[in-house]
Amino acid sequence: MNAETPRAARPADCPCGGAAPNQKAGTRAPRYADCCGRFIDGAAVPATALELMRSRYTAYVLGIEAYLRSTWAPETCPADLDVDPAAEGAPHWLGLAIKRHEQRDETHAIVEFVARYKTGGRAFRLHETSRFTRGADDRWRYVDGDVSPS
Ligand SMILES: [Zn+2]
């Protein structure tokens, strides 16, 4: 048995669409390799919570659990994380919009976003304000978030 997980296919255009606060409608998506790909595939480290948030969205789209775990604060990372996009009932992610990115101080930031997805033939919006902290290793990590009814 080969214990290695198969490498998920990488898209040409970045699934996050380069989402940013005040992004103009119709902006072309950046190349995956120039956007979240450099973080997910380990060539670079996100400099801001916003870059980390986008790359985590993209990791959900691609089902890259290892990246989600490595960018999650150990205190809040769930043991039973399952992000296989091929699993039954798994959300089909449709797009990301960033409403707000605020760096509160050197080690704390929030990102408010809306992620659209479909599951069971119905469309949903996840509107969340996420909290991020930066560790002693200078890396931003997701802590938790408040979901807004929308
Ligand atoms: Zn991206």
Question: Layout of helices and strands, plus pairs?
Answer:
Blueprint: H1 37-40, H2 49-62, H3 65-70, E1 92-105, E2 108-119, E3 122-134, E4 140-148
Antiparallel strand pairs: 1-2, 2-3, 3-4
The chain binds zinc ion (ZN).
Zinc ion is lined by residues 14, 16, 35-36, 54, 58.
Question: What can be said about this structure in brief?
Answer:
By secondary structure, the chain is α+β, with helices and mostly antiparallel strands. The protein has a single domain (32-148), classed as Roll (Nuclear Transport Factor 2, Chain: A). It has helices spanning 37-40, 49-62, 65-70, and strands spanning 92-105, 108-119, 122-134, 140-148.
In words, what does this structure look like?
This protein has helices at 37-40, 49-62, 65-70, and strands spanning 92-105, 108-119, 122-134, 140-148. The chain has 150 residues and is an alpha+beta fold. It has one domain (32-148): Nuclear Transport Factor 2, Chain: A (Roll). A 4-stranded antiparallel sheet has the order 1-2-3-4, with helices on one face. Strand 3 (122-134) and strand 4 (140-148) form a beta hairpin. It is globular and about 40 Å long. The protein binds zinc ion. Zinc ion (ZN) binds at residues 14, 16, 35-36, 54, 58. Zinc ion (ZN) is lined by residues 14, 16, 35-36, 54, 58.
Give structural attributes.
4 strands; 4-stranded antiparallel beta sheet; binds zinc ion; Nuclear Transport Factor 2, Chain: A; alpha+beta
Give the C-alpha Rg.
Answer: 15 Å
Rounded to the nearest angstrom, the distance between the terminal CA atoms is 46 Å
Number of strands: 4
**Roughly what is the average pLDDT, rounded to an integer?**
93
Q: How many distinct folded domains? A: 1
- Estimate the strand proportion: 25-35%
Order of strands across the widest beta sheet?
Answer: 1-2-3-4
What best-fitting shape do the alpha-carbon axes yield? globular
Number of alpha- plus pi-helical segments = 3
Bound molecules: zinc ion
Largest sheet: 4 strands, antiparallel
User: Could you spell the SSE succession in H and E letters?
Assistant: HHHEEEE
For the record, the CATH class is Alpha Beta
Q: CATH architecture, please?
A: Roll
Q: Uncertain runs with pLDDT below 50, 5 residues or more?
A: none
